[in-house]
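F.,

This is the one I mentioned.
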């Protein structure tokens, strides 16, 4: 009898974490490697947030808290939703978890039964389908091609809905593409959902504040109030506040679902780190002006990467509306051979050869459900990005 659970056979380790770990290992061996796989800002956590955490430690706020978050943080989250999204929630409708990933996982574990389907637009964050599988559900993928800006259409969504559909996971701006749906585009999708009252919406708004140019963020329950009672609006402090390691995510939605998620968390991790919760209170309630400053740097980096990659024959790099990723299509490079003799039959082969021959670590597109492509995180300094893109240009120029 096998010792390990059969459930584990349904899922795979995170490819993005694997790429980051491999790049770190190669660097530790003394190799010249540029890692562009990590999805986290290179900025330090703002000082006022760190000071709030230190103050919490000094004040002895180091004990267990309520399983799903301290009252002060829930109040700050309610204020954030009202201020930024014009959504009214009470603290009873809010849950706090150990990062955005746990929030999504709790929701799926609390609601999915065998046979339940979850619609996931592709390209998708690598963890969505595996979390659905771990919870016993069935992921249903809807492709948003590069020529459509990596966005799905209302017709695509309509065609994917069946009587078994329980959730539609919506991530905008997107990881891995940075694609952001306008309010008009989002309203067209919510119009479809309004015709199917058995389908709930799970938003992943983690990149809400990382937007560029004239793009304005909107979230489903904001665009279509009729979905309020079947929407779980998820977010966190990781990206906008440069707090990835602090591990605080949160969500708001119907009390019944929030209580169910709390039950899952009570028997898994219990409360998130107390110190991190107090830091998150300051993040949400404190000054927000540095977000715009950071965004200017991200925009400059985005423009640098898109410009350099767009010079490559056979590569198409759409301009993302938000987040800190680009997702170039490499359809025109598949079938070619590298200078070292590697035949590029897939985007995974492309990424492996790029790492071996030029020392640039990227994440291959098949990990995100749409090939052939790859993801670059431009959450690093300009000099490193310029060096990496030059290496990619040289790599592609040598293909035959």
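My design for it:
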């Amino acid at each position: 009898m096998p010792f390990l659970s059969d459930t584990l056979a349904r899922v795979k380790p995170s490819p993005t974490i694997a790429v980051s770990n491999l790049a770190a290992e190669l660097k530790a061996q003394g190799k010249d490697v540029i890692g562009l796989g990590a999805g986290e800002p290179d900025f330090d956590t703002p000082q006022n947030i760190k000071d709030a955490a230190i103050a919490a430690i000094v004040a002895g706020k180091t004990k267990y808290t309520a399983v799903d978050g301290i009252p002060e943080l829930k109040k700050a989250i309610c204020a954030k939703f009202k201020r930024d999204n014009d959504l009214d929630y009470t603290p009873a409708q809010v849950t706090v978890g150990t990062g955005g990933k746990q929030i999504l996982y709790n929701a799926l574990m609390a609601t999915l039964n065998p046979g339940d389907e979850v619609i996931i637009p592709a390209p998708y964050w690598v963890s969505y389908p595996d979390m659905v599988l771990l919870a016993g559900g069935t992921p249903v993928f809807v492709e948003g091609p590069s020529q459509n800006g990596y966005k799905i259409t209302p017709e695509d969504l309509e065609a994917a809905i069946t009587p078994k559909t329980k959730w539609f996971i919506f991530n905008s701006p997107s990881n891995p593409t940075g694609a952001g749906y306008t309010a008009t585009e989002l309203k067209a999708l919510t119009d479809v959902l309004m015709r199917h009252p058995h389908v709930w919406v799970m938003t992943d708004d983690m990149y809400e504040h990382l937007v560029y140019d004239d793009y304005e963020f909107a979230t489903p329950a904001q665009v279509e109030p009729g979905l309020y009672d079947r929407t779980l609006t998820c977010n966190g402090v990781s990206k906008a506040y440069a707090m990835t390691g602090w591990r605080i995510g949160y969500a708001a939605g119907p009390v019944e679902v929030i209580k169910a998620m709390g039950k899952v968390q009570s028997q898994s991790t219990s409360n998130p780190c107390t110190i991190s919760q107090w830091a998150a209170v300051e993040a949400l309630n404190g000054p927000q002006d540095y977000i715009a400053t950071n965004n200017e740097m991200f925009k400059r980096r985005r423009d640098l990467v898109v410009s350099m990659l767009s010079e490559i024959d056979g590569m198409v790099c759409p301009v993302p509306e938000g987040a800190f990723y680009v997702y170039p299509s490499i359809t025109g490079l598949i079938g070619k051979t590298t200078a070292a003799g590697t035949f590029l039959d897939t985007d995974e082969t492309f990424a492996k050869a790029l790492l071996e021959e030029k020392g640039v670590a990227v994440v291959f597109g098949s990990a995100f459900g749409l090939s052939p492509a790859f993801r670059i995180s431009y959450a690093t300094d300009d000099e490193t990005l310029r060096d990496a893109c030059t290496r990619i240009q040289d790599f592609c120029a040598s293909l035959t």
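The first strand starts at residue 34 and ends at 35.

Talk soon.
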